[in-house]
Structure formats: C-alpha cells, structure tokens
TrEMBL record, chain A:
Gene3D superfamilies, per database record: 2.60.40.790
Entry protein name: Hsp20/alpha crystallin family protein
Similarity comment: family membership: Belongs to the small heat shock protein (HSP20) family.
Matching PANTHER family: 26.5 KDA HEAT SHOCK PROTEIN, MITOCHONDRIAL, HEAT SHOCK PROTEIN 21, CHLOROPLASTIC
GO biological process, one term: response to heat
Length: 124, 145
C-alpha cells in the first residue's frame, strides 16, 4: 500500500510541466492551433492523438555551460505539456503539423461530413 | 502539523522567494533598482558561472534579424516585435493566449561583465546571450610576502 503511494507520488513529480500558451482559431475548414514551445528541438516534440485527446508535449533543451547556477528562472521546468479534447466533427487522422523557431502550428480539418453545406430549399 | 502546513502554500512560496533572493545575492545579480519583472515577454532565465553570465530569453516565433540586443552601462536590453498571423474575417478565435506586439526587457548585469565579450544565438525560439566576465575580476591568488 505505502509502496503504491510512493510510486504515484514519483509519477506526479515527473508529470510536472509548463502549460504552453496557445491560440486556437476555427474557420469553415477546421481548427488551427498555435503553441509557443520555446527551447524545444524538433526531435523533442511529441504529438499524439488517443481517442479524442490531443496531447502536445515537448522537452526543453538549453545549451548551458558547465557548472552554471540559475539565479533567476521564469521558466522553471524543462517540459511542456497540454492536452486538448477534440470534438467529433474534427478529423484527427488528418492533423497537419509545422514546427519552426519554437512555434507549433497544427491544422485539424473538419471531417468531410461536418463541412458546412448549403441546404437547398425547394419551393413547391 | 504537517497537514496544517500544507494547507498554506503561501508559506512555501515565501520560502522559495527567500531561497531565490539568496541565490541571486550569491551571484551579485539581484540588488538592482530595476529588478527583473516577472511575467513579461519574453520569459527570461539568468544564470552564471565564474567565467560568464548566461541569459536565456524564451522568444519563440521571431525573425532573429528583427531582435535588438544592446548592452549599455551595465544594462542589457532585449527588444523586438512579434507578429502573429491574423485570423481570417470569418474565423472564430476560441483561445487567445500568445503574446503579440512589441516587447522590451531589461536586465541589470553584474559589475564584472565584459561588454566586448558577448555572444548571442537564437535557436528553437530561445535567444541565448552569453557575456564573459572580466579576466581581472576572476578570483586571484594573493601571495603574502
């Protein structure tokens, strides 16, 4: 019992992460999400969709000289993490991602059936 | 007693503040009238070794050519502008958290920095400025005759 508690405590500590600021914009085609992930190299960025949860994760990797001591830290953790719930009309299998200068741009299109359609009104 | 303490996170925060103050004083970076304001853009980390002062500005999505970094009279200024793609006319903005516009942040440097030994790099959205400390200010062994 106590061992389990210890394990779960260690997990929470590992899970400590910064929440990156985002912009989320929606138009007829779908959703565009921008996330600020400064300090994350391309190979340290992890994106995954599981069910309807989209997870953005990244590890900060800074070049630091040996023996450096931090005297002022506004970015106090080395990890970003944020989870979004996708709604049904979005097509999670067609997520597009671009990552440049620490900014992630995700495009999530709407599923074909959810695209806006003009309804024809027949006059009888 | 333990429960009682954990219910007052303020105590933990003030402990952290104290710790940070002590660390800053240890590196002679803090006693400054300008301080280092929190929460501005870009977020900044400052650190140091015996040979250099290292400043990291978390400024993603900026064209490095538009960044203005200056050192004058022991004060480092990082200024620039971040332009963000404007959403189309028919778009709806659901979340709007990212910084946009002009920014300027100032850091008071320790007395022993050498303004001629500065290196600045921009990688993965982080501006890293490394400033050497003056050679004669580094610890010297004094022989007693």
């Amino acid at each position: 019992m106590s061992e389990n508690t210890a394990v779960s405590k260690a997990d929470t500590r590992d899970d400590a992460a910064l929440q990156p600021p985002v912009d989320v914009i929606e138009d007829a085609a779908g959703i565009t999400l921008y996330a600020d992930l400064a300090g994350v190299a391309k190979d340290k960025l992890h994106l995954h969709v599981e069910g309807d949860a989209l997870t953005i994760e990244g590890e900060i990797d800074l070049e630091m000289p040996e023996g450096m001591e931090n005297s002022h830290a506004e970015v106090g953790l080395a990890r970003y993490r944020r989870v979004f719930t996708l709604s049904k009309e979005l097509d999670a299998s067609k997520v597009g991602a671009e990552f440049k200068n620490g900014v992630l741009k995700l495009t999530i299109p709407k599923a074909e059936h959810a695209q806006p359609r003009k309804v024809q009104v027949r006059v009888l | 007693m333990m429960m009682y303490r954990s219910l007052f996170p303020r105590d933990v925060l003030s402990e952290l503040d104290r710790l940070q103050r002590e660390m800053q004083q240890g590196l002679h970076l803090s006693p400054s009238i300008r301080g280092i304001a929190r929460g501005g853009f870009p977020a900044m980390n400052v650190g140091g070794t015996a040979k250099s002062v290292e400043i990291y500005a978390f400024a993603p999505g900026i064209d490095p050519a538009t960044l203005d970094v200056q050192i004058e009279k022991g004060v480092l200024t990082v200024a620039g502008e971040r332009q963000i793609e404007q959403p189309g006319e028919k778009a709806t903005v659901h979340i709007d958290e990212r910084f946009a516009g002009r920014f300027r942040r100032v850091v008071t440097l320790p007395d022993d920095v050498d303004a001629n030994a500065v290196e600045a790099k921009y990688r993965d959205g982080v501006l890293h400025i490394s400033i050497g400390r003056k050679q004669d200010a580094q610890a010297r062994r004094i022989t007693i005759q």
